[in-house]
Every structure is written in C-alpha cells, then in structure tokens.
UniProtKB/TrEMBL annotation:
Domain of life of the native organism: Bacteria
Organism of derivation: Natronincola peptidivorans
Protein name per UniProt: YbbR domain-containing protein
Database matches in PANTHER family: CDAA REGULATORY PROTEIN CDAR (PTHR37804:SF1)
C-alpha cells in the first residue's frame, strides 16, 4: 500500500464510524423500536370442510380469539394493518373430543411476533343424522261459526343432520300456522324449523325435508232441529198424545256445502206397537255422511199415551140454539127432552179440558114452516176437541120440533 492510500484510510474509518453513529441515533430517535398489542384477533380454523367430509365438526361456535404482540421499527409496525394479521389453527387429523391445537401467526414485514395463548382448546364432535317427529303448531282461530277439522300432514317425521350435540337438542321439527278469520280448507306447504324443548330454533343443523304438506278442513257450525222418526201403534183403548225428543236442537259440524243443505236431523227409525204406557228411551241420530254432532250422538225419545174414555155432558133444553127461524113463527120446545146428553169419546187429557158451557147444540130452522118435524141437531164444540175426539154422540140423536104461528099462539 502506498503512502497516499495509507494517509486516506484513517479519515475513511473515522467517517464510517461517524456515519454509523449518526444512523444509530437517527434510527433510535426518529424510527425507534415499538411494541403493539392487538387484542381479540380471530382464529381461522383451516381444513374445516375436510373434517366435515370425514364426519367431524367443531362443537359450538368457532369464534376463538387471541392476543398478538408485534415488535419492530415504528414504520414497520405501523405499516401492518389488523386485517393482515393471520392466526390459523389446523384441525385436520384430530379426533372427537377435546383437542389442543397449536396456532400459527403470520404478519408481513421484518417484525417480531408473540401471541397468547399458543394453543387453543376445541372440542370436535361427530356429525350424526336422526329422525325427529314433526309437530304442527296452530295459532289463532277461524272465522266465527267455523271450527277446525282433523289435522292431517305429511311427513310426520324427518331426518335431522348436524353436530351430535345440536341434533340431540332438537325436540321436534315444527311448522307454525297463524290463523285469522279463515273459513275455507287449508291445503298448503309450510316450512319446518328444528326446535328444542324451550321452543327455540336450533341453528347449524340441516333437514332432509324442509317443508311439510298440511291439510286442515275448516268445518261450518250450525244449530238444527231434531226430527223423531217413529212408527208406532197404540194398544186398544189408547191414543198417542205426544212424541218428543230432548234436546230439540243439536249443534252439527261439517263442510260448508253439506251443512248449508241441512235444516234438521232425523233420528233412527223406531218401531213400537201396542203401547199402553209412556215410554222414554235413548236413540241414535241418523247423521248424513260428512256430518258430526258436537254435543251428543243420541237424544231422548219420549212417547206419551192417554187412555180413551167416554164422558157425558148435559145440555139443558133452554140452551139449545135455534137458527134461521122464519118470521111470524116460533118453535114449540115442549116435545124436546128437558136435558140432552152429549157423549164424547176421547183421551182423558183432552176431556179434562172440555166444559159443558163450551158445547153448543144447534137446530137449523131454515125453510121450516108451521108443522111438526123430527130433526137431528148439530153439536158444536171447540175445534181442537172436535178434531181429536174419537166420537161425538148426541142423546137422543133426534128431537121433535113443532113450528107454530105466533098469531095462533096468541
């Protein structure tokens, strides 16, 4: 080395030293080393799909987080965005149960990284499939005067697949129906939801069948009368006084087009002969197809009989009514018996309502001039008695009447 080069070496070394010193100063004062903590950095689980295909999933929510500490020059540390911090846990190859999974943290740049915890504990469980019953929950009511018929739905059970703990928590697979003034039959599909024992929906499980086909007939209500159908013959000397049922009306239900045509419901036909006493018995209703009774399918049939008796009523001669007597003549009643009898054959109940004052004996004198006549009087009485009486007989059946001139009488 020549003398000139040796003389320049020392200043160069000194310059390098001063430059290094200045660089160290600048780096420590202007761009110092700093530490930055990031809390709750989410952990990304990898190979989840591969494990699912193998029949395993993470139990619960896979939302673990850790703390990450980054140390380095300020400009390097600040350059790192939170989203660039990657925390990964590879679950491939682990078995069901509790597992400690090591974490891998990566950040860009020339920085030092520390994190806590180093391991994360997760529980793996099997994916299972089990059949669960279908339940249909109905809220609300149909229109007034209508009622729900028998619920029918398909399927009645569906397969639920998912993590074992979640599938086991499923109590039923439920469809919810909300009614509001419906009056027509319901026949549609409703979505199904997996529900636990508290009525809460279970997430993260899948249903093999997502819908249920539901059929609910909506029946119309109606109050109609009961018609007794009786074929009966009273015993000799008796008469049927009444045939009745209790209750007289019943409440029925059925499809609207059927119910609208019905005004009454017949009883089953009852045949009874030679009745000589009152009868009461339970009989069934003859319901048309598609009609049901809300109250009771039977009614009480009552048949009442009355004995037929004869009773005589006395009518005085003075109470006989002569109608249409011609002018200038009058009736001589002297040959008419002082008392006439009206014999009525009828039920005892009917005869108890008859009074002699209500019976009228009438002789029609129309066209009769002065002479002697034998006439059959007419017996008049209340219409109900006259219609229901078995026989009405006047004793004597005929009377002698003389028509005389008023002048001759004088």
């Amino acid at each position: 080395m020549n003398k000139f080069n040796r003389s320049n070496l020392t200043p160069k070394i000194i310059s390098i030293f001063f430059a290094l010193t200045i660089w160290i100063y600048v780096m420590s004062e202007i761009n110092p080393r700093i530490t930055r903590d990031e809390q709750n950095v989410p952990v990304e689980f990898i190979n989840i799909e591969e494990m699912r295909q193998a029949g395993f999933v993470i139990k619960g929510e896979a939302d673990e987080t850790i703390r990450v500490r980054i140390t380095g020059r300020r400009d390097e540390v600040h350059r790192i965005a939170r989203g660039q911090i990657e925390v990964k846990a590879d679950i491939l190859g682990y078995r069901p149960g509790v597992n400690n999974i090591p974490l891998e943290v990566s950040v860009p740049g020339e920085v030092e990284v520390d994190f806590n915890p180093k391991l994360i504990r997760i529980e793996l469980e099997e994916i299972i499939s089990r059949q669960k019953p279908v339940n249909v929950n109905i809220e609300g009511t149909p229109r007034r005067g209508y009622v729900l018929g028998e619920l029918d739905y398909q399927p009645t059970a569906v397969w639920v697949e998912g993590p074992e703990s979640l599938v086991n928590a499923v109590e039923v697979v439920q469809a919810n129906i909300k009614l509001s003034e419906e009056f027509e039959n319901i026949n549609t599909r409703y979505p199904l939801k997996p529900i636990n024992s508290r009525g809460e929906e279970i997430p993260n499980v899948s249903l093999q069948t997502a819908y249920v086909n539901i059929n609910i007939p909506i029946d119309q209500l109606k109050t109609v009368s009961v018609n007794p159908v009786v074929e009966t013959m009273p015993a000799a000397g008796y008469e049927i006084s009444s045939i009745s049922v209790e209750p007289t009306t019943i409440n029925i239900r059925g499809q609207q087009e059927i119910v609208n045509l019905i005004e009454y419901i017949n009883t089953e036909t009852i045949v009874i002969d030679n009745i000589d006493e009152n009868i009461s018995r339970r009989i069934a209703l003859d319901l048309p197809e598609g009609i049901t009774v809300i109250d009771t399918p039977e009614v009480t049939l009552s048949i009442e009989v009355d004995p037929i008796v004869e009773r005589n009523f006395e009518i005085a001669r003075e109470d006989i009514e002569f109608r249409n007597v011609a002018a200038g003549v009058e009736v001589d009643k002297s040959e008419i018996p002082a008392v006439l009898q009206v014999r009525i054959s009828a039920t005892e109940t009917l005869l108890d309502t008859v009074e002699a004052a209500a019976i009228n004996i009438v002789i029609n004198m129309e066209g009769l001039e002065q002479n002697q006549y034998t006439i059959e009087p007419v017996v008049e009485m209340p219409f109900l008695v006259e219609r229901r009486a078995k026989q009405i007989q006047l004793i004597p059946q005929s009377v002698n009447v003389k028509v005389v001139s008023i002048d001759n009488e004088t």
